[in-house]
Design brief:
142 residues; 20% helix
């Protein structure tokens, strides 16, 4: 007789799978083909083995693993749907979203008293009753 897993065990496993999927999706690498790239069914194929498919220049492949100069990639086969294969890294350029350049400038704070309505662009304009509210705050703080 088989034992049943504890109650809530299936929910715990499902939650783990969802968290794992979101964690890996955030940093998914892609590889763009720069030269027509043969995709093989195994890593380090013998010279006599023909490729499963040949990816054209500009094709974007999803990188799922790497061993040495070989990348394990997922691709969309026109006949069989989504498949996994191996391609040499010399045929592709790998893009890592977490290493993409971004603006890391530190914005200098603008002194509040230096602001003047004429200096602000339209969306940043202070409300009309700003001065009145400032006066009320000063009176409350006295």
């Amino acid at each position: 007789m088989m034992r049943r897993p504890p109650q809530g065990f299936a929910a715990l496993i499902a939650a783990f799978v969802v968290v794992l999927a979101f964690a890996t999706a955030g940093f998914a690498q892609t590889a763009t083909v720069t030269k027509n790239a043969p995709i093989y069914g195994q890593q380090n194929p013998p010279a006599s083995m023909s490729p499963v498919r040949v990816a054209a220049v500009g094709t974007v492949l999803k990188v799922v693993g790497q061993e040495g100069e070989w990348l394990q990639v997922q691709f969309q086969d026109p006949q069989l749907g989504e498949r996994t294969g191996w391609v040499r890294s010399e045929f592709v350029t790998v893009r890592r979203p977490e290493l993409e350049p971004m603006d890391l400038s530190v914005k200098a704070p603008v002194p509040h008293r230096a602001l003047h309505r004429a200096q602000l662009s339209q969306p940043e304009r202070l409300p009309r009753d700003w001065r009145r509210r400032q006066r009320l705050r000063r009176l409350r703080n006295k």
